[in-house]
Structures are given as structure tokens and as C-alpha cells.
């Protein structure tokens, strides 16, 4: 349901008390920032819906995981960062890239595997990387980003910088060994890092309660004497305030674990019909939709009208249409560049050959005369 329609229907069914204009809550967020959050949430929602469609049109290859239902967390969290901070995410990353200021067209072009994409078309949906905005990716291995982010925090500390690292991961990632190793070393060495656990209730089809002996995931920080908090991930202002507190701690050498609780509106990836979810669970998720809920909140606060809600939605739709046009017009990368970005510096090794080229000379055939052939197991 579009946010304006959702706002209307929510108001139609609300009580007269709820319809009364509510004062701004106890938050550091200004009216302009609140509207900025809403705009960004709508843009991410429309982008992700369009990405799902592009996948069914076979424009997008490989895997594709969406931030649908996590828009409030993405907007609040990303607004709390300084430009010089570093961001690591898992494979569910499109919204973070957009919120970091990367043009939606470049994000869509990466999904399309085109040369104007964030990773020049070689990364795809899960592997975006942009040094200019310190967006460090995009990792398909669950937890793969966690030690790398911790290492980045160590580098900052070693050089005496004031930047911080934000390392985003899912709830399921807190059961990966590298999560615990990383938190332990970050606490021991007072590293400037905030670990953010996006608790969407599921790791693929497995619930948090089924997979985590302590389902209140922020409590895991206690094992490392690390500060932590759990916050409503459907409320961008609560996420923003909590993330600012966490980042202030991290910058003063106190790493932090922030858990945000929200829902994943669709399947794990675009090809997952989420049949493990009951109708009631799906309906509850829809009722808590953070985009529609925030539209109602800002409307009640007098910051949005039905007209401005429709305008913001139209703006987001045209930004996404432009992104699709940009992606469609971008050329496919040339196959000769396939290995160009595998290493940071040029490495003249055999694996840089094109697919299909043999790495080593063919072994001699039995009985063939070949004095120079290497015999495996030959005496040295
Ligand atoms: C090391 C590793 N194990 C398993 C997988 C397969 N896998 C991909 S996503 C996923 C679930 C992760 O869930 P969570 O951390 O909660 O992130 P979410 O997808 O909910 O954002 C799994 C098990 C993988 N990619 N890497
Ligand atoms: Mg999850």
C-alpha cells in the first residue's frame, strides 16, 4: 500500500485521541531531519520494489536481498554517521548504499551488472564497494564483514584518527564464530566500532528463538563488557538517537553493540516466497510497516499533509524510474576487465587469464616421449 493510502486508512480507523496533533517526542531529531528520514525511507521502499520487479524481468542476475521493512533503521542509522566514518554491511545492502549518498542509478546499474554500477558491474547486488563514500561493502559470506570492519577500526586506532566504523549484520550473524572473536578483540583493544545487529526475526527461514539461546541479542555484549542497547528499528528517530550515543562511545574508545528490532516484509531474497510464515505473521508485519507508520506519525505532528505525502512518493517514483533508465543505458563491462579489481595492486599471475584458458601446460599423455615433463611424486 502506498504510504499516503496507508496514512489515510490508518487515520480513518484511529481514535479521536490519536488524531489529535502530537508534540514531537523526546528526540534530538529536528523537523527537517524527520522529513529527510521519511523521504529516504520512501525512496528506499520504491527502489527495492522496483529492484524486485527488475529481477523478474531478468535484468538482475545472481542473488538479490531487499531492505523492505528495514527502511526506518537504514535511514536513522545512516544519518547518524559522519562523512569520514566507514560502513560495512552484509548482502542486504541497497538501502545503505543509497543512504550513504551513492546515486540510485549507480546502485541499480550494479544490480544490472553494468559498467556504471557502484562496483563497475562486477559485484552485483551483494558486493557494492565505494571508497569515495567509505562504503566498504557488501558481503555474501554471513559474518564476513565483521572481522574486516574490526580490522578497519584497529587501523583507525593505530593511526590515531577520529573516525568510527559501523558494522551492520543480521540477527543470524551473531551465531558465527567471527562475531564473538571480533567483539572480544574490539573490547580488549578499545576499538572505535559500533556493531549493529538488524534483528528482523529471521535468518533465512529460521527464527531468532530457534537459533539463539539468548534471543535478546544485545545482551551478548555483556560477555565482552561492552555497552549495548536494543531499540525499535521501525522508528527512525529512535535508531538515530541510539546510533549517535553508540558512535559517541565508539569514538572515545568504547565499542558498542546496537540491536534494532524490525521485520522483513518479504522473503529472505527475491526468490523466496516465505511459505514458512503464517498468514497472521504476514498481516502483523504489514500492520507495523515502518514507512506507513512514520507517514502517520509525521502527519499527526503536522509535518506532512496528504498532498506532501503524495508528492514525496511521486518524487521517489521518478528517481527510481531515472535509476532504471540509467542502468538500462549503461554498457555491460568488457570481459577483458574481469580480473582487474581482484587485487588492490596489479598481480601478474596465471589466474588473471580469461575463463577457459588452461592455467598449466597439459600433463604428458601416458607413453608420450616428453623428457621435460614434471612427474608428480618424482624423487627430488
Ligand atoms: C558462512 C555462511 N553460512 C551460511 C550462509 C547462507 N546464508 C545466507 S544468508 C543467511 C541468513 C543470515 O541471516 P541474518 O544474519 O539474520 O541476516 P538477514 O538475511 O536476515 O539480513 C544464511 C544462513 C552464508 N551466506 N554464509
Ligand atoms: Mg535476520
TrEMBL record:
Q: What is its EC number?
A: 1.2.4.1
- Quote the biased-composition stretches of kind Low complexity, using this chain's numbering: 1-17
Disordered as annotated region, ranges: 1-27, 352-380
Which keywords does UniProt give here?
Oxidoreductase, Pyruvate, Thiamine pyrophosphate
Q: Which cofactor does it need?
A: thiamine diphosphate
Task: Identify the residues that the record assigns to the Dehydrogenase E1 component domain, covering every copy.
Answer: 39-335
Q: Which residues form the signal peptide?
A: none
Name the source's superkingdom.
Bacteria
SUPFAM superfamilies xrefs? Thiamin diphosphate-binding fold (THDP-binding) (SSF52518)
Q: Which Pfam families match?
A: E1_dh
Catalyzed reaction equations:
N(6)-[(R)-lipoyl]-L-lysyl-[protein] + pyruvate + H(+) = N(6)-[(R)-S(8)-acetyldihydrolipoyl]-L-lysyl-[protein] + CO2
Please give the subunit comment from the record. Answer: Heterodimer of an alpha and a beta chain.
Relate the protein's function as given in its record: The pyruvate dehydrogenase complex catalyzes the overall conversion of pyruvate to acetyl-CoA and CO(2).
Q: What is this protein called?
A: Pyruvate dehydrogenase E1 component subunit alpha
**What gene name does this entry carry?**
pdhA
Amino acid at each position: 500500500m502506498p504510504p499516503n493510502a496507508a496514512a489515510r486508512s490508518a487515520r480513518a480507523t484511529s481514535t479521536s485521541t490519536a488524531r489529535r496533533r502530537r508534540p514531537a517526542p523526546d528526540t534530538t531529531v529536528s523537523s527537517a531531519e524527520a522529513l529527510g528520514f521519511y523521504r529516504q525511507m520512501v525512496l528506499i521502499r520504491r527502489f527495492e520494489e522496483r529492484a524486485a520487479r527488475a529481477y523478474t524481468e531478468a535484468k538482475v542476475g545472481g542473488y538479490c536481498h531487499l531492505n523492505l521493512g528495514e527502511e526506518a533503521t537504514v535511514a536513522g542509522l545512516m544519518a547518524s554517521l559522519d562523512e569520514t566514518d566507514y560502513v560495512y554491511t552484509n548482502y542486504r545492502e541497497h538501502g545503505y548504499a543509497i543512504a550513504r549518498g551513492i546515486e540510485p542509478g549507480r546502485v541499480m546499474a550494479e544490480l544490472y551488472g553494468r559498467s556504471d554500477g557502484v562496483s563497475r558491474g562486477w559485484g552485483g547486488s551483494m558486493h557494492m564497494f565505494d571508497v569515495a563514500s567509505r562504503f566498504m561493502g557488501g558481503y555474501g559470506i554471513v559474518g564476513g564483514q565483521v572481522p574486516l570492519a574490526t580490522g578497519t577500526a584497529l587501523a583507525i586506532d593505530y593511526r590515531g584518527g577520529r573516525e568510527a566504523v559501523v558494522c551492520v549484520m543480521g540477527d543470524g550473524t551473531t551465531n558465527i564464530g567471527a562475531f564473538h572473536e571480533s567483539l572480544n578483540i574490539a573490547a580488549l583493544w578499545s576499538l572505535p566500532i559500533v556493531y549493529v545487529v538488524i534483528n528482523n526475526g529471521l535468518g533465512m527461514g529460521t527464527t531468532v528463538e530457534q537459533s539463539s539461546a539468548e534471543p535478546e541479542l544485545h545482551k551478548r555484549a555483556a560477555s565482552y563488557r561492552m555497552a549495548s542497547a536494543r531499540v525499535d528499528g521501525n522508528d527512525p528517530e529512535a535508531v538515530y538517537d541510539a546510533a549517535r550515543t553508540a558512535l559517541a562511545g565508539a569514538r572515545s574508545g568504547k565499542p558498542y553493540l546496537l540491536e534494532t528490532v524490525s521485520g522483513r516484509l518479504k522473503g529472505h531474497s527475491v526468490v523466496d516466497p516465505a511459505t514458512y510464515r503464517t498468514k497472521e505473521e504476514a498481516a502483523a508485519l504489514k500492520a507495523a510497516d515502518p514507512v506507513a507508520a512514520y507517514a502517520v506519525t509525521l502527519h499527526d505532528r503536522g509535518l506532512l499533509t496528504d498532498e506532501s505525502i503524495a508528492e514525496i512518493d511521486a518524487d521517489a517514483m521518478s528517481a527510481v524510474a531515472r535509476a532504471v533508465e540509467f542502468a538500462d543505458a549503461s554498457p555491460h563491462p568488457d570481459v577483458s576487465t574481469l580480473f582487474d579489481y581482484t587485487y588492490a595492486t596489479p598481480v601478474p599471475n596465471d589466474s588473471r587469464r580469461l575463463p577457459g584458458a588452461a592455467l598449466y601446460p597439459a600433463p604428458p599423455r601416458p607413453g608420450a616421449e616428453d623428457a621435460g615433463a614434471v612427474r608428480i611424486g618424482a624423487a627430488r
